[in-house]
Amino acid sequence: MTARVPAAVTPTTLSPVLLLLDAGDDHAIHHAAHQRARPERGCITADPTPHTNSLAYLALDLLRSMGRDSFTRPDAERMSTDAAWRAVTCWTLTTGLKQAIVLRAHRLTLERLARLATWRAETGIRLVLIAHTPTEATEYRLRARLAAAGLADPHTVSGTPAILDAIGPPDTSRRHGPPPPDHIPPLPDLPDGDAASFLQECRRHLNKDDFARTDSQYWAGHAAARTWLARHPSFTPVATATVRSPDEDTGPHEPTDWQDMESLRLFLSCLTVSSPSPGHTLARVRGAQAHFLGRELQLDVPDDLAARGGPGITTVPITPHVAHTLTTHLPNPLRAAAAAALLFTGTGQSLLSMTQIASVDEHATRLAIDRDSRIYIGMPPGPRHMYAVPPRARPLLAAALAFRRRTPRTTDRLGLFAGCFGTPIRFDNLIRDAGLDIPAVTHPYPAEDWHAAARCRRLPATTAD
Fold this sequence. Notes:
There is one protein chain. This protein folds into three domains: 11-167, Rossmann fold, CATH 3.40.50.300; 198-239 and 255-308, no CATH class; 320-444. Helix content is 41%, strand content 9%. It contains 17 helices and eleven strands. It has helices spanning 27-36, 55-65, 81-95, 110-123, 136-148, 160-167, 198-205, 208-230, 261-272, 278-294, 320-329, 333-345, 349-352, 372-375, 394-405, 424-434, 439-442; strands at residues 18-21, 43-46, 99-102, 126-131, 155-158, 237-239, 256-258, 297-300, 366-369, 385-388, 455-458. The protein is α/β, with parallel strands linked by helices. Helix 8 crosses helix 10 (278-294). The protein has a five-stranded parallel sheet. A four-stranded antiparallel sheet has the order 6-7-11-8. A two-stranded antiparallel ribbon has the order 9-10.
């Protein structure tokens, strides 16, 4: 699954507003509207909070209908009116919402209707308004407000049977609660052998079941390395040896280092970002090293791999349970993406705070952090820190990008997570609202991530006797 890239919305692509005039305020109509709602299938039903005309409350009501209602907690971080509406727009675009049913539309002020019109224009969502209009005068006043708000000439339906038909049948698909917590059996302590002897050492020290699970991870890394090297024929080495004259000794060639370290770092991140434990990471890396070695390439990783930080070591797989927790606990797209980045990069907030808007690619599949640009101003940049974005985190990154780009006075060189890690109080609030254990926070590693310290070189060629 990749992040949704919203298409441009033009007036000709907008669906007409559907106005359902419920003269009798029939409970069956409200019940049918709620039964129709399924956010994960593209339809929501919002019931505006009574006794208030606040624009912010209407935005929060829409977020609640999307399943993002943690802001109702007394200690939750608050959003301003503009930020809340930007969040509504960004979640609509990136989660594929197609229709919104709004109840009690006759109580909406001109300003609130104008906000709904803007939301519709920016996202192309199909807007269905259900209004209680017992008299011709109330219907006239409602139509006047709709016209003034930019929602003129709605398609009108009246009468309970016709309204129920327009709403459609209830969604009878099975309604699931939150995904169950993740439970993945950990691997035992694995022997500290090199790539050539790793499997033999595991077979010698592990029982049958543990070896089978370790062996599957090893060959998964082996297969990933084979696929990746086959897709990177341009991943060519640059010689580090001194140029020799034709008269000099023509013995075995010197080792050569790989030039494209960013691609290598991204591969290692892709390989391990879904690892549920350091043991799984070690087995995958050893498998990848074995295939590299078979191609006369030596892939070196830190000896203290399990004690380091980074992908597969201090990361948390973005499982359905984790993704559900992030999307329900953090209605602000920036906060949700920041918490997700802490989980899938496994790095600290000091490095993540350097993430620029331009650091995330168009489809939100990778995140690149150029730390050297902040430290060595004017010096040629070194290899960036590359992180793979797992599929379930991509909609969160895409929503954050859309949110930031809709913020006034924004450029691609500004910080994507600006304000999320800035102060201890704000950072503590982010961690609390996320409601997840983040290893990179509870067990920080001050040095660079392990995949940034990895190296690859071509082994010296041997000569025939």
